[in-house]
């Protein structure tokens, strides 16, 4: 049964989202029978599309997955010739430079569960006039999100794109839902023994010196570089990426950093100059930023001082992969809270007005942002720290699907 006409909902880099969902796989524009419960994302076909589909299938095997995630549940390649031009022209990314229907590119249609129209930052902004409710939802939604990250960790999946726009607030279930697995990757292939360091334990080159290292590097170079480019899609600075991902993206996406090349201080300084983003500057004080810059410089320059290779850097940083999304979640909640309060988090006035537990919570998140890679906590550890701040007990794992739905109410007070 046809419901309301599909409408443009949002635009992304490679395509657009329409709601109610469209049965574009049939070669025409019409509603699905269950279209009110789904959206359709039509976008240019990319080689990474396969990853999103496979990861979506894995996510759907996780316990109570629809309480935490909204992955792609159906996908197909489509021909835009069959599409309704009146609908297509609302989406600039599937038009050519003349504003006409682009029939030269390949497109895919992805069906995804509809989980509401407000991402977490917008939802929290709606609560800014009722601080008690804001604090309650801030903490409970973050705890729920950390549960979701632990589920991804269990499958060695890194989302790589946790940010306010990809954490939607499902007002029916009263929980945040992670969406958009387009950048998500399973990290297991990069943990292969074939990428183990060739350097000796004493950090001296084997017999044959640098020439041996270069020849050995060539043996793995093609496979390694292909996998790195596939996993780390860009070396551009991204607001919600930790320094580990940024460094690894440079290793994977640039031509001047070779796996078995000795790290130089000049290379480190050049890379680090691009890391501090507007969001980092927004959530940290000037002193915190200065201290953070010095610490990351000292940490990564130590690789050059110890004559390490970029492969050595990779092997150290890749071990932290289960902590990366936790960093992004901390940035998401710091930034969302800042937007909700409409004031700098570091001002004296803000600190006075906030309960001490909220101040401790914000301090915890800041410490995650400024932590060195080896210091950064796992999602489970952050969740435990938050519970300790607010005096929460651990929920029963077997009734986890009900714990957040019943635990949080508008009148909850945690301080």
TrEMBL record:
Stretches for region Disordered: 391-415
Skewed-composition ranges (Acidic residues): 397-415
Record domain Protein kinase: where: 3-390
A single GO molecular function term of this UniProt record: ATP binding
GO terms of biological process kind: mitotic DNA damage checkpoint signaling
GO cellular component term of the entry, any: nucleus
A Pfam family annotated for this UniProt entry: Pkinase
Stored PANTHER family: OVARIAN-SPECIFIC SERINE/THREONINE-PROTEIN KINASE LOK-RELATED (PTHR44167), SERINE_THREONINE-PROTEIN KINASE CHK2 (PTHR44167:SF24)
Stated name of the protein: Protein kinase domain-containing protein
